[in-house]
Write a structure and sequence with these properties.
Length: 291
C-alpha cells in the first residue's frame, strides 16, 4: 500500500483523466481519502488521495444544498455496503467479479478476496490508463485482475470474454453509480449483455435512483446543479424489483437503517432527511432468475 508520507504522485501526462463521469469518480475518491484519515474508517482506500492529487482535483459535487453536504458520507456507506456484497458473493461461489464503469475503484487491491477470485474492470481506456499510472504496479489482493478498456455504455461483451470471463461460471456484477447516468435504453442494453454472460448463481449490485424522490426539495436542487456540469441522473426507477425482474433478475432493496454503520454515520443528517430524502436512491442487489 502507498505510504502517505511519500511525495505526492505527479499527473500522468500521457494519460489525462477524461472529462464527464470521471468527475463522479473523483468525488468518490475524495470521500474515500477523507474517510481513510479517520481512526476507524468504514472504507480503507489508501490510493484515493493519490488519485485526487494526481488529477489536481480540488472540487466536489456542484451546489451547496443539504444533499451535497451528505454525499461524501453517503459515498462511504454505499461503498461499504457493496464491499460486503461483493466479498459475500465471491465467498458464495462467484469467483468472477465484474465492475461495470469501474472508475477509480480499488476493490481489486483492498478487499479480502477468497482464493481464486478474478476481478474485471470495465471503463474508458483513458481513465484506466490514468488509474494504472497512479496505482504504479500495486499488487492486487484478488487472485487475478484484468482491465477492459471499453465504453461500458457500448459494446464490451466480446472484450470481456477475451479478457478471460467464463460465462459458464457464476459472476458477481457491480455498477455502483454508473447506470443512472445513462439513458434508459442504454441501461437495458447493458443489462441485457450482463444477463447473457451470466451463469446460474450469478449476482448483481447497482445503486438506482428513486423516480419518486427525484423532484423532491431535497434532490431537485442538486440535480439542477449537476445538470449544469453536463452530468445528469437519467435512469430512474419507481419499482426496482419489478424492473429487474423484467430483465431476468430477482432483486432486493436494502433497508439501510437496519445497518449499524449507516445509522451511525448518517444520524447527524436525520434533521435533513424527510421520508422522500431518506429513500432518494435504492441500494439494490439480486441474483439471476432460474431459466
Amino acid at each position: 500500500m502507498p505510504d502517505p508520507a511519500q511525495p505526492q504522485p505527479p499527473p500522468a501526462p500521457d494519460a489525462p483523466l477524461p472529462d464527464g463521469l470521471s468527475r463522479v469518480a473523483l468525488w468518490t475518491a475524495s470521500a474515500h481519502a477523507r474517510e481513510y484519515g479517520r481512526s476507524a474508517p468504514y472504507v480503507r482506500d489508501p490510493w484515493a488521495a493519490d488519485f485526487v492529487r494526481a488529477a489536481g482535483f480540488t472540487g466536489g459535487p456542484p451546489g451547496d444544498g443539504p444533499l451535497q453536504r451528505l454525499l461524501p458520507d453517503w459515498a462511504v456507506v454505499r461503498t461499504r455496503f457493496y464491499d460486503e456484497f461483493l466479498v459475500g458473493a465471491a465467498r458464495a461461489g462467484c469467483r468472477q467479479v465484474v465492475l461495470l464503469g469501474a472508475g477509480l475503484d480499488t476493490r481489486a487491491f483492498r478487499l479480502d478476496w477468497p482464493t481464486g477470485t478474478h476481478v474485471f474492470e470495465i471503463d474508458d481506456p483513458a481513465l484506466l490508463a490514468f488509474k494504472e499510472h497512479v496505482l504504479d504496479c500495486a499488487t492486487p489482493s484478488c487472485g487475478r485482475r484484468s482491465t477492459v478498456g471499453a465504453d461500458p455504455a457500448g459494446s464490451w461483451g466480446g472484450e470481456l470474454l477475451a479478457a478471460g470471463l467464463d460465462p459458464r461460471r457464476p459472476t458477481a456484477w457491480l455498477s455502483e453509480t454508473y447506470l443512472y447516468h445513462l439513458p434508459p435504453r442504454t441501461v437495458e442494453s447493458l443489462v441485457r449483455t450482463m444477463t447473457e454472460l451470466s451463469a446460474p448463481g450469478s449476482a448483481f449490485g447497482a445503486e438506482c435512483v428513486n423516480a419518486g424522490a427525484a423532484s423532491s426539495s431535497f434532490v431537485a436542487p442538486f440535480l439542477e446543479a449537476l445538470s449544469a456540469t453536463g452530468i445528469s441522473w437519467q435512469w430512474q426507477l419507481a419499482d426496482p424489483r419489478g424492473w429487474w425482474a423484467e430483465q431476468g433478475w430477482d432483486a432486493e432493496v436494502a433497508d439501510l437503517f437496519t445497518l449499524p454503520y449507516v445509522v451511525q454515520r448518517l444520524t447527524p443528517y436525520l434533521p435533513l432527511l424527510t421520508e422522500a430524502a431518506a429513500k432518494c436512491v435504492f441500494l439494490t442487489t439480486g441474483t439471476l432468475n432460474e431459466r
